[in-house]
Design brief:
The protein is of the alpha+beta class and 715 residues long. It contains 27 helices and 24 strands. A 7-stranded mixed sheet has the order 12-24-23-22-13-20-21, with helices on both faces. It has a 6-stranded antiparallel sheet with strand order 14-19-18-17-16-15. Strands 5-11-6-9 form a 4-stranded antiparallel sheet, with no helix packed on it.
Length: 715
């Protein structure tokens, strides 16, 4: 396929097959996605009848190889066409530019011989490298579904046929073989440049594929053996040496090392791994040798899932594309009509048949809708690829367009703005007590408890002394004897119930509670010893993320089921003024439905209903199946700054698409009248077929080049 009309033609051919519910054809990815029950042979036959060829979808590596082979074939065809076009152009146009050359040709070859030589060169171009235009364009024309190939075939073919008739009638008259031949050569050159540029739009997929090694070292009873990834099975034991990439998702059985997981976590520092820890395929073993057991292989790995999501994103059709499709559907027939009117007008009112053919050919060539067909999908491919490299995966195509226009964004609190689990925040001992001893004694009591707050204290002091005579007051606190001292840990009410006067700690505890922290009071042998506060800490990147969103002009709000005091405290620290607390899941849905166009960011597990109900749901950081299924956008890293990155990419991609469409439509609208010679009677410029061919090719290259600028969108 070479233009938007090609894609439309293939799509219509597929939709006419019995059993096809819908068919979407993407020009940039050269891929058709069909929903329905039609058998594969019928689908392939329909594409073949439409004048094209198709095969079942291939893995990314195979497609890259196919595209590279096609680009090489196009390069060879372009070189042959250029070698033939150079003497053709010199024989005809060189004489107009250099009179001495014109006389030399006349004296040595003779103008009749020169015309026959031009005919031979032009015929070699048209029916050699240029035969592809006739092979696809003529069937399309006969089927009354003309495309770009038909326009080029008609334009160059008309100039060649006219010149053949002239040379057979009187070889001394002016001929236009150079127009026919050079047009073909320039169009092929444009196609080749376009193919090279379009090849770079798939860099994201190739880079992701390169993260996975081609083979793995499997451990057997006979020793390690090198096997391809396709041969691996769940349960296989694999050896990963320092510097090697992990081939599959698995778990460490033996060895310790530091592993670079930045592709998934965004952390630049390698993470320590030891027996029992999970590993993701594509990460890099930096230090020691590891023996792992394969848990997910092939298409079941996390990396394969990311690649599938990027490929699906490349296939997306935004609502803005529907406008392009409708225009393209009628554009080529309109161009044919304009070309016919141009021919008749110049034939009747112009100097003759030669001028009529020249302007008609220029109209047919300049009006090719290649740039229109590439305007949207190339921007999507590059934008989605850039997003994937930043850890942002778009699951739904129209989410890109909706996110670009978003102005309000709501956040869940627990697990989204905060880490989602309590952690020790402060240690506040009374005079005469050290921080270390207060934590040590409190942790000894909490070691016997299963409460989440107890686990947070234990995480800060994992090796406390042993406790005896442990007892618990459900929902209030716990007591135990540690190193001969009676230690109480709990609320002020618990300490009072045990006969301890906690007045000295209560006012400060109330202040900490007002900020969203949970105060834990400690008494030793009947005397208040201090206070430990536990809180759900903010994500480290949350403040910077809120600042970035404010800079983008977005209004933020919080929707949480937590207590109002805690929620307000978190909102105040992050600059979120609109905080709504004590919300049940249904209340969150009502809040989202009451504000159309709302983006919701959640952790992708307990927020699944809200993520699905929002205009755009963004699941942060988990990478779980639930997150991927419930949200339109998934952030693969626990980094809230990815929300701003997603919005920047969405806005930049939509702006890029609009620029491409403005260029494509404006280019055709502006240059078709010039090519038709509308301005010539008033002394204005005209456009030769050769310049039209060069401009047409450069138009597509411009569109693809503009799309490639999206690779520079900042995080």
């Amino acid at each position: 396929m070479t233009c938007a009309a090609c894609a439309q033609r293939v799509s219509r051919a597929l939709q006419r097959v019995d059993g096809v519910a819908s068919a979407q054809v993407n020009l940039a990815t050269e891929r058709a996605e069909i929903l329905g029950s039609a058998p594969l042979p019928a689908l392939l036959a329909a594409v073949d009848d439409a004048g094209y060829s198709a095969h079942p979808w291939r893995p990314a590596q195979d497609r890259s190889a196919v595209r590279a082979a096609e680009a090489q074939a196009l390069a060879r065809a372009t070189i042959v066409a250029m070698l033939l076009a150079a003497p053709l152009l010199a024989l005809e146009m060189g004489g107009h530019l250099i009179p001495a050359l014109h006389h030399w040709v006349g004296e040595t070859l003779g103008h009749v011989t020169s015309h026959w030589l031009q005919a031979l060169l032009a015929t070699g171009i048209l029916f050699g490298p240029g035969m592809r235009f006739f092979r696809l364009g003529i069937p399309a024309l006969l089927a009354r579904q003309p495309d770009m190939n038909a326009l080029v075939a008609m334009g160059a073919g008309a100039a060649w046929l006219y010149s053949v008739v002239i040379i057979l009638h009187d070889a001394h008259q002016a001929v236009y073989f150079e127009s026919a031949g050079v047009i073909m050569a320039l169009v092929l050159l444009g196609r080749w440049l376009e193919a090279r540029a379009r090849g770079r739009t798939g860099d994201a997929i190739r880079e992701l594929m390169d993260l996975s090694p081609r083979s793995a070292r499997r451990l057997t009873d006979a020793g390690p053996e090198e096997v391809p990834l396709a041969a691996l099975r769940v349960g296989d034991r694999l050896l990963i040496r320092p510097g090697e990439r992990v081939p599959v998702d698995g778990r460490v059985l033996e060895g310790t090392s530091f592993v670079d997981c930045s592709m998934f976590t965004g952390e630049p520092v390698p993470v320590a791994k030891q027996p029992g820890d999970a590993l993701l395929g594509g990460s890099v073993n930096k230090q020691g040798a590891l023996t792992i057991m394969a848990e997910h292989v092939g298409e079941a790995t996390a990396l394969a899932g990311i690649i599938r999501m990027v490929e699906q994103a490349e296939e997306t059709r935004l609502p803005i594309q529907a406008l392009v499709d409708r225009i393209t559907l009628v554009f080529v027939p309109v161009v044919m009509a304009v070309a016919a009117l141009t021919f008749l007008a110049w034939l009747v009112f112009g100097p003759g048949l030669a001028a009529a053919i020249t302007h008609t050919v220029a109209v047919l060539i300049i009006a090719c809708p290649c740039a229109m067909g590439l305007a949207t999908p190339t921007s999507i491919m590059v934008g989605m690829g850039r997003a994937a490299r930043l850890g942002v995966l778009f699951r739904e195509g129209d989410a890109l367009q909706r996110l670009a226009s978003a102005r309000r964004i709501a956040f869940d609190k627990t697990g989204t703005l905060t880490e989602g689990h309590p952690a020790l925040a402060e240690i506040l001992p009374q005079p005469g007590i050290t921080r270390e001893s207060l934590l040590r004694l409190a942790a000894a009591v909490e070691a016997k408890s299963e409460h989440p707050i107890a686990r947070a204290i234990m995480a800060a002091e994992p090796a406390p002394p042993a406790a005896q005579e442990f007892r618990i007051a459900l929902g209030q606190g716990a007591a135990a004897r540690v190193e001969g001292q009676l230690v109480l840990v709990g609320s002020a009410a618990f300490l009072r119930s045990e006969g301890v006067d906690a007045t000295a700690l209560e006012s400060e505890a109330a202040q900490r509670a007002a900020t969203g922290a949970t105060p834990v009071l400690v008494a030793i042998d009947g005397q208040p010893a201090g206070m430990i506060t536990v809180a759900d800490p903010l994500r480290a990147t949350a403040p910077e993320a809120m600042q970035a969103l404010a800079a983008l002009g977005l209004t933020t709000m919080m929707l949480t089921g937590d207590h109002a005091a805690t929620a307000q405290a978190v909102g105040a620290r992050l600059g979120i003024a609109d905080v709504r607390a004590h919300l049940l899941p249904g209340d969150k849905l009502d809040a989202l439905r009451a504000a159309p166009g709302m983006v919701f960011v959640g952790d992708g597990i307990n927020d699944a209903p809200a993520l699905a109900a929002a205009d755009v749901g963004i699941a942060i950081g988990t990478g779980t199946d639930i997150a991927m299924e419930s949200a339109a956008v998934v952030l693969m890293r626990d980094d809230l700054r990815g929300v701003a990155s997603a919005i920047r990419i969405a806005r930049a991609t939509l702006l890029n698409i609009r620029q491409n469409l403005a260029w494509a439509f404006g280019y055709n609208i502006a240059l078709v009248p010039v090519a038709a010679g509308v301005l010539a009677p008033f002394g204005g410029p005209s456009l030769s077929p050769m310049l039209a061919a060069a401009a047409m090719g450069l138009s597509s290259v411009f569109v693809v080049g503009n799309a490639l600028r999206l690779k520079g969108v900042r995080a």
